[in-house]
From TrEMBL:
It is found in: Cell envelope. This is Substrate-binding domain-containing protein. One of its GO terms (cellular component) is cell envelope. Belongs to the bacterial solute-binding protein 2 family. It comes from Candidatus Avichristensenella intestinipullorum. The lineage of its organism: Bacteria, Bacillati, Bacillota, Clostridia, Candidatus Avichristensenella. Residues 27-323 form the Periplasmic binding protein domain. It holds the Pfam family Peripla_BP_4. Keywords: Signal. GO terms for molecular function: carbohydrate binding.
């Protein structure tokens, strides 16, 4: 009798366990693209997070970042599956407003990633995993000032012969580029002020004039984002007396500078601008070549892998009812010495 009761207890435990076993969470990830190497790294991060957290995940990216309707259609299909959470980088927030409102109504958490979902309905976006562009650009200032002789040059600047450190930006309206300009200027101002009086000039948005400054931070913004205008802005900077270092705040600014310097060759040994210390932002084949050749001392890259990984991680937490908040996915500094390291190579896309 005891054996029968024991067997019954075991069966109840086994079948009870089967009855209450929960299906894995289902997470829908809808990105801005898939073919570009940046988004491939994002996808790898998403997949690794899904595997680690034991969730089912669907990933979609349209063929190009102009395919708004394809992204909307993919989101509609995923909504029909009633996912436990959605990870979204909207090509157009206006185009997915209805879907976002439905998510609010049905309690489906939406996590923004990369550029996120700006101007989404209140309560729709639980958190966003993205690059803090101010922090990322500040990294360039921190790395530049570490270079041999940099602080000595700052200290040697005089009002009659100031040291000029410039920031080249292709516009003053884009949130990401404006934030990078701010991040670089603010951090360089903080660091350089330890060695000399600093004046910020060139654009009203960032102007901090100072008398008798031995260091000038100059912000140069091109007339338009057209490559010709960016190149002209770069040429203007290159003709500035006392130009010592230059930060290009995005791939467009890098392209303009390279166009103004014979593809970068003029920055090389024996070139007319061989003395100039240049730092970039983003990647792309021309910028990677500039770093490899030593024409740039280094560049800042976003971390697309962590954008994807942390986006899914936040989605899992939100689906489980945990409180989540925005997170900075970080940035990396790459140089000719580390560009081929495995943890950097996957982040510096062509």
């Amino acid at each position: 009798m005891k054996k029968i009761m024991a067997l019954g207890l075991v069966l109840m435990m086994v079948f009870g366990a089967v009855a209450i076993a929960e299906e894995p969470l289902y997470i829908s990830v809808v990105s801005k693209g898939e073919q570009h190497a940046f988004w491939q790294a994002v996808r790898k991060g998403c997949e690794d997070a899904a595997e680690e957290y034991g969730v089912d995940m669907y990933y979609y990216g349209p063929p190009s970042e102009s395919d708004i309707q394809l992204q909307v259609e993919a989101l509609n299909v995923e909504m029909l599956k009633v996912p436990d959470a959605i990870v979204l980088a909207a090509l157009s927030t206006e185009s997915v407003m209805t879907q976002l409102e439905d998510c609010v109504a049905h309690g489906i958490p939406v996590i923004g990633f990369d550029s996120g979902v700006p101007n989404a309905p209140e309560g729709a976006i639980y958190a966003t995993a993205s690059t803090n562009n101010q922090n990322a650009a500040a990294l360039a200032a921190e790395e530049l000032i570490k270079l041999d002789g940099f602080t000595d040059a700052l200290a040697a600047g005089t009002p009659e012969a100031p040291v000029v450190i410039a920031c080249l930006s292709q516009d003053a309206t884009s949130e990401s580029i404006t934030s990078r300009t701010t991040g670089f200027i603010n951090k360089m101002y903080e660091l350089a002020s330890e060695y000399n009086t600093v004046s910020v000039e060139g654009h009203d948005l960032w102007a901090q004039p100072a008398e008798d400054a031995g260091v000038i931070l100059r912000v140069e913004v091109s007339a338009t984002t057209d490559i010709t205008d960016v190149t002209n802005a770069a040429t203007s900077l290159l003709n500035t007396d006392g130009l010592f270092a230059l930060f290009c705040s995005n791939e467009g600014a890098v392209s303009g500078l390279l166009a103004a310097t014979s593809g970068g060759a003029d920055l090389g040994e024996d070139g007319p601008y061989s003395h100039l210390l240049v730092a970039g932002f983003d990647a792309g084949a021309p910028q990677k070549e500039a770093v490899r050749n030593g024409w740039f001392v280094g560049s800042v890259t976003q971390d697309p892998y962590r954008i994807g990984y942390l986006g899914v991680e936040l989605a899992v937490k939100a689906a489980n009812g945990e409180e989540v908040s925005d997170i900075d996915t970080g940035a990396k500094w790459y140089t000719a010495e580390n560009i081929d390291d495995p943890d950097i190579a996957m982040l510096v896309y062509d």
